[in-house]
């Protein structure tokens, strides 16, 4: 063992190289795992916290609208159903972290690694396409959300100053540009996605604006003259919507709920932070149960309280739709929290995409110096900065492209539904089920194989109708769009 360890001279620890003297058996076992990587310190508590942080996000803002389309019965049932499906597939995914044995097998550090180890073939490329399409969609959705939230702050102050009857039209274009400029700057910071405080800020902000939304909803329901119209089946055909609109909105609501639970693509990475003892799969199953149960309770409270407050007229985003006018400063604070959360969350989602494209280009054109060469520049108060022409042009172009698409399609509710429908089935349902079937060698056409396939096909149908509803909503919104009015 000692001789073998002495040959490993390039194991990294925080960017430092370790010489042979570092690797005696006792020190190695204390500081490193059996694969030469730094020893993991994650626990059930930290994994549960990571899952809760990953789940609770901007998707909570549209749940009141989703419940309004489905009603008091189907709304909560769909929320619970999505949570149970997400929990179940998360349990299956936990079994695929090590291969071939779930306890002693080789670690899979990422979701794609797990697909490669358990499925292989063309499904690796399909997984990559699904993941990166989701990342692109989320960054566009976040740009839309932030621009609407920033504009809502200005609009809230306008209502407070001139009265609730004033139109207070506000264009989101100006705020989209501001957000893009901020992201262009942040994209050039090396390893921004590794800053330890980022997850803490995201967690605090998401809990803050979600809690404020719940609190404002409860306060509105408690008002003496509150008369929001709610029904068991949601928006009423012939009163609120036509029969066709009811169907399309129901489909779109499913996409909105799916977006709220679309977090499975980071579960393998979260599991990779856990200590090896007790076994990671057992700890991750408990963490998934705690995380999904906690967020589902939070979502049910948020969706039902929002529906009770607004009834069938619930806005697509209950913090920018102005069912709440006062206290205006609290509405402003909630939207500032949304903005602060998504400024950092944008980087979390975009950095893996940046890394993939830059690595691919470096391997494709290794002789191109402007792609592979970093120029060290001394910046005042910041030390040396590794400047790269390709990184500057590519990352800036990407942020500008997402901002342009957000300007063309500034429709929060419809876009959220589309992203949810696009990413939920492949990443949350299909790959976890297929990997589990392959790893457990479940016999074709056995009872277990059949019901797993039925679950998978059923979720595919739900995702397809949710995507259709969201696309139809996007088409209608584009047709009726007024560029100088904030989209609700």
TrEMBL record:
Belongs to the amino acid/polyamine transporter 2 family. Amino acid/auxin permease (AAAP) (TC 2.A.18.2) subfamily. GO terms for biological process: amino acid transport. InterPro entries: AA_transpt_TM. One of its GO terms (molecular function) is symporter activity. The chain crosses the membrane at residues 44-67, 73-97, 132-153, 173-190, 197-219, 250-268, 289-308, 328-349, 392-412, 418-438, 450-471. One of its GO terms (cellular component) is plasma membrane. Residues 41-474 form the Amino acid transporter transmembrane domain. It comes from Papaver somniferum (Opium poppy). Residues 1-32 are annotated as: Disordered. Keywords: Amino-acid transport, Cell membrane, Membrane, Symport, Transmembrane, Transmembrane helix, Transport. This is Amino acid transporter transmembrane domain-containing protein. It is found in: Cell membrane.
